[in-house]
């Protein structure tokens, strides 16, 4: 007997579903390229090198640049923004020259680190000399600057309404933006393809749920099929 809600749906058994899946031919080379794309984009240089040797799949960029990119990302995540800017310029000076928003966010992160370390006078001087002129040129920059400078009005910045700027997530956000800019400068996608394909799988299953009862993949890490509810 069909459960309530499935009477109007077509029921596809595991045997039928697996036969349909087996009829879909995917080249191993294409799968290998997806894996390599993930390693390169996410910065797993050792895994990429090992996978290249094992599969014969060539990355579309020099793997040495991954190490340089990860050094920049790590510097931002550690709060060493000056070092990160220097490393970005060593990689490609045009990255910051052609991306004023990224440069402002890096400078904003520098200001946040000064405030975090209690260097109040230095923070005020830096905000006035380096960030204020950029804020005058761009309204969104000015709003971000005002929020950051407002941290100085609180004795306990960790518990103030704007304390999220001092959270590690703010560093990670800036580091991710820098990482994406470097990838773009190398003519590489800023996001790996594999997670987007998994999102498409979930979306497709949700769409199909309205029309059929079929074996689902609920655990993406194992890709195990679960029988339809019939």
TrEMBL record:
It comes from the Eukaryota. Coiled coil: none annotated. Residues 65-122 form the CTLH domain. InterPro entries: CRA_dom (IPR013144), CTLH/CRA (IPR024964), CTLH_C (IPR006595), LisH (IPR006594), Ubq-SigPath_Reg (IPR050618). This is CTLH domain-containing protein. It comes from Lupinus angustifolius (Narrow-leaved blue lupine).
């Amino acid at each position: 007997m069909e459960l309530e809600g499935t009477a109007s749906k077509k029921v596809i058994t595991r045997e039928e579903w697996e036969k349909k899946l087996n009829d879909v031919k995917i080249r191993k080379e294409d799968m290998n390229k997806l894996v390599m794309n993930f390693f390169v984009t996410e910065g797993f240089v050792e895994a990429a090198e090992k996978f290249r040797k094992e599969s014969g799949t060539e990355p579309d960029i020099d793997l040495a640049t991954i190490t340089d990119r990860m050094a920049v990302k790590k510097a931002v995540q550690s709060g060493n923004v000056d070092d990160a800017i220097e490393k970005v310029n060593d990689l490609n000076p045009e990255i910051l020259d052609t991306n004023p928003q990224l440069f402002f966010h890096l400078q904003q992160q520098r200001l946040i680190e000064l405030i975090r370390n209690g260097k109040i006078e230095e923070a005020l001087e830096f905000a006035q000399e380096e960030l204020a002129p950029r804020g005058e040129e761009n309204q969104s920059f000015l709003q971000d600057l005002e929020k950051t400078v407002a941290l100085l009005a609180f004795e306990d910045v960790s518990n103030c309404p704007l304390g999220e700027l001092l959270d590690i997530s703010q560093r990670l956000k800036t580091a991710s933006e820098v990482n994406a800019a470097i990838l773009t400068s190398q003519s590489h996608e800023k996001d790996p393809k594999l997670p987007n394909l998994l999102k498409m799988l979930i979306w497709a299953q949700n769409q199909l749920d309205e029309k059929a009862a079929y074996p689902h993949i609920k655990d993406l890490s194992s890709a195990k099929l679960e029988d339809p509810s019939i």
